[in-house]
Amino acid sequence: MSNKRFAIVTGGARGIGRSIVYALEAQGCKVCAIDVNDAMLEELSDIAAAEGKDITTEKLDITDSDAMTQCFNRLADENDGISVLINNAGITRDGMSMTMSDDDFDLVIRVNLKAAFAAIRAAARSMMRNRYGRIVNIASTSGVIGNAGQANYAASKAGLIGMSKSIARELAKRNITVNCIAPGFIQSDMTDVLPEKVKEYFKGMIPMAKGGTPDDVANAVAFLAKEESGYITGQVLCVDGGLTMC
Ligand SMILES: NC(=O)c1ccc[n+]([C@@H]2O[C@H](COP(=O)([O-])OP(=O)(O)OC[C@H]3O[C@@H](n4cnc5c(N)ncnc54)[C@H](O)[C@@H]3O)[C@@H](O)[C@H]2O)c1
Fold it and tell me: Could you tell me the pTM of the whole model?
């Protein structure tokens, strides 16, 4: 394994994912941002080139398991293995359960949960070879305490937590950690589209009375991705201004 750790961040083109890309690069990783959003990937590449950051980009739809596996194998070959994987890409298709379509349920599970599974399977081969890995999955407080109107999303994120704990147990002896970050209400493009009334409602429930920033999430991810965090596995760390404390 080369000295510089190679990290993959799915959904790394914008929002929380982009903050994670920057945080891992600042920590000394070479980082590849994977995303479907061409325009945002291009913007990220331009910024990285202008600022001399060690960041590359790949356009990939993570629901295409075969394409993702091929891409990860190539990236692993080119970079002496994959040291860090951050499953951050995620979508919402909110609606009350009584009126939610099968398509909206399936799509959210496919992007948020099944694609994360396929990404871990693809990256874990290289990590097992190198007997080293840090995997961080971006869940949500919706997956911890539930959220009305998000049965599909909460199921995907709760599934991510159960899956992470299971794979953490499978990979623990290989020096590979698997943890979850569960953000609460974070200001991003995903939440910008929510009605003002909904945003105010959430803020009213948060002890800190404000939303978090993508950097708040990225700092927690960077902590779990650190070399020195190797004795932490199977955990869920909520970054939520106290929303879920009990
Ligand atoms: N914003 C919040 O309040 C909040 C709260 C809890 C959890 N999260 C989670 O944090 C993560 C990032 O959220 P965000 O707010 O930055 O959202 P965002 O919509 O700004 O970013 C998500 C990124 O994922 C990419 N993506 C979506 N589907 C993809 C696919 N099939 N293949 C490849 N890339 C794909 C998008 O293009 C986008 O760049 C998500 O997993 C989300 O569920 C966000």
Answer: 0.98
